[in-house]
Design a protein that fits this description.
Elements lengths: L3 E6 L7 H15 L10 E4 L8 H5 L1 H12 L7 E4 L10 H13 L3 E4 L4 E3 L5 H15 L1 H20 L13 E2 L8 E2 L1 H16 L3 H11 L16 H9 L26 H20 L12 E3 L6 E6 L4 E6 H4 L8 E2 H15 L2 H5 L3 H30 L3 H35 L2 H7 L5 H13 L2 E8 L2 E8 L2 E9 L2 E6 L2 H9 L12 H16 L1
Helix pairs in contact: 4-5, 7-10, 8-9, 14-15, 15-19
Bound molecules: zinc ion.
Length: about 525
C-alpha cells in the first residue's frame, strides 16, 4: 500500500529544538492531511547536539528508513516528506544528492516541505542540478541562520522605531545593557571619537590623525592588546561620516533614520565642522594652490571688483601671490599681493575680529578648580547660616565652638579663592596681550590655516582687500556690517575698530591708543582684578 512518510530531524540550533519538531510536523500536516502520525510513518532523529553520537553508530532513524525502503517495509510508490533536502544526509550535498537519487530510483517520491517541490522517477539533469544548488544552500547553516537572524532584526528595527533601546549592531563606543535600558557609553572610546572629530574639524587629514593616534599608542576600536592593529585612514573616514556620534540611528530596514536614538557623543556643530573641513581639504587638493592652504579662501574679496582672490605661484621664484579672479578673467585691474604679505594682514584681522578665548585654548581645568572651591565656600556658608540660627535658639557652647571652626574654614577658603582669582586675572591679562596672542597665531601648518579660515567664515566675516601702494588695506565686515579696518605699511599693521565689540577687544588687550578709554597694561590688570574680586564678593 502506497503511503506517506515523514522524516524529521531536529536542527542543530539548540534554542529552536522544540519548535523545530513542531514546525516540521506542521508543514507535513499541511502538505498531507492524511498523514498517519505514528512511529511507523514518522521517523525522527533528535538533534546532534542533544544526543551526540547516539544515532551516528547505527545511522539513526534515517538509516532505518533507507533500510525499510530496501526491504520493502516502505513500499514503492510511497512518498517521503522532508523539510529540506539536507535532511537526507548529514554528510553534505553530494551524499544527500546520492540519497535523493537512490530513493527516487527505488520508486519513492520525495517532497521538500519548505518549497513543496516533488522529486520522483529518474531525475532529469535540471532536477539534479536544482537539487544540488538547493542542497548547497540548504547545507549552509550559516545562510539559514542569517535568514533567521535577519527575521529577528526586522523585529528589532520595528521596536527601535518606537524609541525602545534594542540589541542591534552598535558603534564601538556604545554597549548594549538590556532591552529598553539606555545604551552604555564606553568612555574611553567616546573620548577618542571626540578627539578625532576635533582634529578633523581643525583640518587635520585622516592620515595625520591616524599617525597621531598610532604614535600615542591608542588602539583602534575592538582591537585586542598585542594584535598590532593600527588606525588607518579608511576607518577614520568612516567614523567621521558616522552620524551615530550625533545620536542618529539608521536601521537597515530602508526606513528613515531615527534622530536622537543613541547618546550624543559629538555635538552637531562639531560634526558639521568636521564634514566641512573634509570638503575643504578636497577643494584645496583640487585647486592645487601649492602646498599651503589659502587662508583667504572665501573670506577675502577684491576691494575693486568684489570677487575672490586666488593664491597662485608667479614668476621664476614661484612666489605665491593673491590674484583677483576678476583679473584672471580680464575684467579687473586690482594689483596682485604677495601671499606672505597678505598674511600679516590676516593675522591682524584674526586678532581683532575674534575673541581672545579662541587663542587661549582650553581653560576648563582652571574653571573646574575655581568652581570646586566655590562649592566648598557655598557649603561652609550654609553651615554657617544654620549654626547662627541655632545660636539664636540656644547658645550652647558646642554650637559656639562649631561656629568658630566654620568661620576659620570660611576665612581660609575665601583667601584661597582670592589668590586664585588674582592669579587667573593676572595670567589672563598677560596672555591677552597683543604679542602673546599674535604668538598663538601660527599659520605655518595647514591645519591651523584651515582652522583660522573656517573660524572667520563661521563668524560670517568677509574682508575686502586692496593694494594701494605703499599700503595694503583690509576692510572687515561681519554679516555685512563694517567692524574693522586694517592697513599695513612696510610690514607694520594698524587696526582701527568700527564696532563697540572690536573696540572692547582692543581695550581688553590694553592696546588702543585712539579711543578715549585708553589704558596701560597695568591699569587693565588692576581693573580686571578688581572686577573679578567684585564679582566674587
Ligand atoms: Zn578684482
Amino acid at each position: 500500500m502506497q503511503d506517506t512518510y515523514l522524516y524529521i530531524r531536529y536542527s542543530h540550533d539548540k534554542q529552536s529544538e522544540g519548535s523545530s519538531y513542531d514546525r516540521q510536523l506542521g508543514m507535513a500536516r499541511q502538505h498531507c492531511r492524511t498523514l498517519i502520525e505514528d512511529d511507523k510513518h514518522i521517523y525522527f532523529d533528535a538533534g546532534k547536539s542533544a544526543f551526540k553520537g547516539e544515532h551516528l553508530d547505527d545511522g539513526g532513524k534515517l538509516k532505518r528508513f533507507y533500510d525499510d525502503v530496501k526491504s520493502g517495509v516502505v513500499p514503492k510508490g510511497s512518498t517521503l516528506l522532508v523539510e529540506d533536502l539536507d535532511r537526507l544526509s548529514r554528510d553534505g550535498m553530494w551524499k544527500a544528492s546520492d540519497k535523493l537519487r537512490e530513493l527516487t530510483e527505488n520508486g519513492i517520491a520525495v517532497v521538500t516541505l519548505r518549497d513543496g517541490r516533488r522529486y520522483e522517477g529518474v531525475l532529469k539533469l535540471s532536477d539534479a542540478l536544482t537539487s544540488l544548488l538547493k542542497q548547497e544552500l540548504a547545507n549552509d547553516e550559516s545562510v539559514k541562520k542569517s535568514g533567521r537572524v535577519a527575521d529577528s532584526y526586522v523585529k528589532r528595527y520595528a521596536k527601535a522605531r518606537t524609541g525602545k533601546k534594542v540589541k542591534v549592531l552598535l558603534p564601538s563606543w556604545l554597549e548594549w545593557v538590556g532591552d529598553d535600558v539606555p545604551y552604555k557609553v564606553r568612555e574611553a572610546e567616546a573620548g577618542v571619537v571626540k578627539e578625532v572629530f576635533t582634529w578633523a574639524a581643525e583640518g587635520y587629514s585622516y592620515a595625520a590623525i591616524a599617525k597621531k593616534l598610532n604614535q600615542r599608542g591608542t588602539k583602534p576600536f575592538r582591537s585586542k592588546e598585542g594584535d598590532g592593529k593600527l588606525w588607518i585612514t579608511a576607518s577614520l573616514f568612516a567614523l567621521v561620516k558616522n552620524e551615530a556620534v550625533v545620536g542618529v540611528y539608521k536601521p537597515r530596514d530602508g526606513g528613515p533614520p531615527i534622530e536622537g536614538y543613541f547618546p550624543v557623543i559629538v555635538e552637531r556643530d562639531l560634526f558639521n565642522a568636521a564634514q566641512g573641513a573634509r570638503a575643504e581639504r578636497k577643494e584645496a587638493k583640487d585647486t592645487r594652490t601649492g602646498t599651503l592652504f589659502n587662508v583667504w579662501a572665501k573670506v577675502g574679496l577684491c576691494a575693486q571688483c568684489g570677487r575672490t582672490w586666488h593664491c597662485l605661484p608667479k614668476g621664476r621664484g614661484k612666489q605665491l601671490y593673491l590674484v583677483c579672479s576678476g583679473k584672471l578673467g580680464g575684467t579687473c585691474t586690482a594689483k596682485n599681493i604677495r601671499a606672505d604679505r597678505a598674511e600679516i594682514g590676516f593675522s591682524e584681522v584674526l586678532l581683532n575680529a575674534v575673541n581672545a578665548d579662541y587663542f587661549l585654548g582650553d581653560r576648563s581645568e582652571e574653571l573646574m578648580k575655581a568652581r570646586e572651591l566655590q562649592g566648598l565656600i557655598d557649603n561652609a556658608q550654609q553651615r554657617h547660616t544654620k549654626l547662627v540660627a541655632l545660636l539664636d535658639d540656644d547658645p550652647m557652647p558646642e554650637v559656639v565652638a562649631a561656629l568658630k571652626r566654620v568661620n576659620a574654614e570660611l576665612t581660609e577658603l575665601r583667601g584661597r579663592k582670592e589668590q586664585m582669582d588674582q592669579a587667573t586675572a593676572k595670567q589672563s591679562a598677560i596672555s591677552r596681550t597683543r604679542s602673546a596672542l599674535l604668538a598663538k597665531i601660527d599659520l605655518t601648518e595647514n591645519p591651523a590655516r584651515m582652522q583660522a579660515n573656517t573660524l572667520l567664515r563661521r563668524l560670517g566675516i568677509s574682508v575686502e582687500i586692496g593694494r594701494y601702494d605703499p599700503q595694503v588695506s583690509y576692510t572687515v565686515r561681519q554679516g555685512g556690517n563694517k567692524i574693522l579696518f586694517v592697513f599695513e605699511r612696510e610690514g607694520k599693521p594698524t587696526a582701527v575698530s568700527y564696532s563697540q565689540e572690536t573696540a572692547e577687544r582692543m581695550y581688553d588687550r590694553g592696546e588702543t591708543d585712539e579711543l578715549e578709554y585708553s589704558l596701560s597694561l597695568d591699569d587693565v590688570m588692576k581693573s580686571s582684578t578688581k572686577r573679578k574680586l567684585a564679582s566674587a564678593k
